[in-house]
Amino acid sequence: MTPVECEFESEVLAAVLESRWPARTDAALVTHVAGCAICGDIVTIAGAIAGSRDQVSSPAVIPDSGRVWWVAQRRARLEAAEIAARSICAQVRDPNGMGKG
Ligand SMILES: [Zn+2]
Which of 41, 55, 60, 97 has the most CB atoms at less than 10 Å from its CB? Predict the structure, then answer.
């Protein structure tokens, strides 16, 4: 039967999540992981999780209020022009409002 647990899982997981893997980890543990499928999977998965955590925790870039106001005004003008053009097109197609029937 294939083993599903390894006694070093928690040490490997801690090393990866604390960004100590593999440079600042005990050499014996690194050697063990090279030959252990379970710990190898932990390194792969925990590494991906730690990488995505770093991306999520990066500081967000918030635009200044003047730019937000300018973009909102521009969007409002474009939407108003689109609505006005839509009703003009409807009048051109059916000037009496009677439909085709
Ligand atoms: Zn192991």
Answer: 41
